[in-house]
Amino acid sequence: MPALVLLGAQWGDEGKGKATDLLGGSVDYVVRYQGGNNAGHTVVVGDQKYALHLLPSGILSPGCTPVIGNGVVVDPSVLFSELNGLNERGVDTSKLLISGNAHIITPYNVTVDKVTERFLGKRKIGTTGRGIGPTYADKINRVGIRVQDLYDESILTQKVEAALDVKNQMLTKLYNRRAIAVDQVVEELLGYAEKLAPYVADTVLVLNRALDDDKVVLFEGGQGTLLDIDHGTYPFVTSSNPTAGGACTGAGVGPTKISRVIGILKAYTTRVGSGPFPTELFDEDGEALRRIGGERGVTTGRDRRCGWFDAVIARYATRVNGLTDFFLTKLDVLTGWEQIPVCVAYEIDGKRVEELPYSQSDFHHAKPVYETLPGWSEDITKAKSFSDLPKNAQNYVKALEEMSGAPISAIGVGPGRDETIEINSFL
Ligand code: GDP
Ligand code: IMO
Ligand code: MG
Fold first, then answer.
1. Does the keyword Mitochondrion apply (predicted)?
2. pLDDT, tens digit (0-9, with 9 covering 90-100), for 27-70
3. Among residues 142, 176, 196, which one ends one of the domains?
4. Are residues 129 and 236 in the same domain?
5. Which of 53, 103, 139, 231 is catalytic?
6. How far is the CA of 160 from the centre of ligand 3 (A)?
7. Is 16 in the pocket of ligand 1 (CB under 6 A)?
8. Is 111 annotated as a binding residue?
9. In percent, how much of the chain has pLDDT > 70?
10. Catalytic site residue 41?
């Protein structure tokens, strides 16, 4: 019953898509358990590059069944444009399964995301504007629309009415926008019902049966640990639980079934949107990381904020996720620096702090304490085993492993599937 969780250990964009795709050939199911099309997962297969947002990265592996779990929020228009895009490129998407309990991102959720961000002004979260937060808010407020609601027009109409009652008051009276018509929304949503039907399934039953039959299931997180609604840098977070526990609630699989939790960890740090980021660089090193690492968002096209590796965050990710392994990505991007600073602790009000402070005020003015490690200049993109790496690159990896609290079981040395050094097998 091997069930693996693969998740972001930092603020997202660690290379989860590549790591999932790499394992996709050896697993039976790849399951998204939270988030939606706020994710942007780039997968490079040979000379082909794919940008996935809502679909699990396992969709590119022919033997694998991709699953959108109950914890995901689904924008049907995005779903179909992503499926069409893949079909046009010859990818078979017919095995996809979507939970009937997944919530739908409605057009009004997208509108509310955009107007609330505008209203927040300089206090904005910097969301992706995809309606993620408002859809999860409706879910928690019990006025959400689920995939299964599309198959009962009367229930759907009642639910859209309930959701729009308050929202239209807010849109017209507070935000000075036009009210949204119930009929129009219902009609648009019903228009997806038939096309969606072949994919809708009781995914909880499917996945638990698969685990009972000893199939291999991989849960693919979106976003990352520090963007988690409970464990991240609230309020500058996404509205779901990318952390390991989210895989259980977001897919309906008990914690006793999870055998391995892999944290995807970039060899430096990036973040998109607002919020604290202790090791952020505003100098030419930051610019160079952005340029060499291609650090531009796949979803919104925004430049990613860049900084040195932060071991305090990595230790925190190990703790809150119960990580068994790390997959270290983008080591190749650091080639060429003579010295590489790594943040080993913070200084807060003159005191050295080893662990992530639980107080947001402390975290906001945490200053990184750096140790500097010697760099390397040799091209490492062709390295196939750990011993192929230059000594200083090996030492950098070993130092990160020691600071971060879990073994580094794979290393990414380029974006392609084969540009990976496997140290311990994940399966
Ligand atoms: P995700 O959201 O975690 O899936 O990550 P993104 O796809 O948003 O960003 C990671 C980027 O780094 C993508 O463009 C990947 O193709 C690329 N990438 C992944 N692993 C490596 C690596 O080891 N080296 C290099 N140079 N690029 C990588
Ligand atoms: P992947 O899966 C990086 C960030 C947004 C914003 C905050 C809230 O590619 O790693 P939201 O639209 O989710 O309400 O925005 O979260 N964010 C991401 N940052 N990678 C992502 O996904 C992200 N998904 C959301 O930039 O700061
Ligand atoms: Mg991404």
1. no
2. 999 999 999 999 999 999 999 999 999 999 999 999 999 999 99
3. 196
4. no
5. 139
6. 31
7. yes
8. no
9. 100
10. yes
141 and 245 fall within a common domain: no
Q: Are residues 154 and 222 in the same domain?
A: no
The residue behind tokens 């997202």 is: 12
Is residue 1 scored above 80 in pLDDT? no
Q: Are residues 148 and 108 both part of a single domain?
A: yes
Distances (CA, A) of 177 to 122, 151, 265, 346: 21, 30, 42, 45
For the stretch 201-242, pLDDT in tens is: 999 999 999 999 999 999 999 999 999 999 999 999 999 999
301 is in an annotated binding site: yes
Average pLDDT over residues 157-163: 97
Instruction: Please tell me whether 18 is known to bind a ligand.
Output: yes
**Ligand 2 binding pocket mutation candidate from 14, 72, 227 (most atoms within 8 A of CB):** 227
Contact (Cβ atoms closer than 8 angstroms) between residue 129 and residue 238: no
| 360 and 280 share one domain | yes
CATH classification at residue 190: 1.10.300.10
Whether residues 83 and 170 share a domain: the answer is no
Do the beta carbons of residue 7 and residue 242 sit within 8 Å?
yes
CA distances (Å), 263 to each of 80, 139, 322, 401, in order?
A: 30, 28, 9, 12
Is 113 a catalytic site residue? no
Number of domains in the chain: 2
Quick one: which atom of ligand 2 is closest to the CA of 302? 26
Residue range of the domain that includes 334: 3-93+202-422
- How much distance in Å is there from the Cα of 215 to the middle of ligand 2? 31
Residue 98 lies in a domain: no
The residue from 156, 181, 196 where one domain ends is 196
Query: 89 CB contacts (<8 Å, ≥6 apart)?
Result: 48, 50
| Residue-level pLDDT at 299 | 83
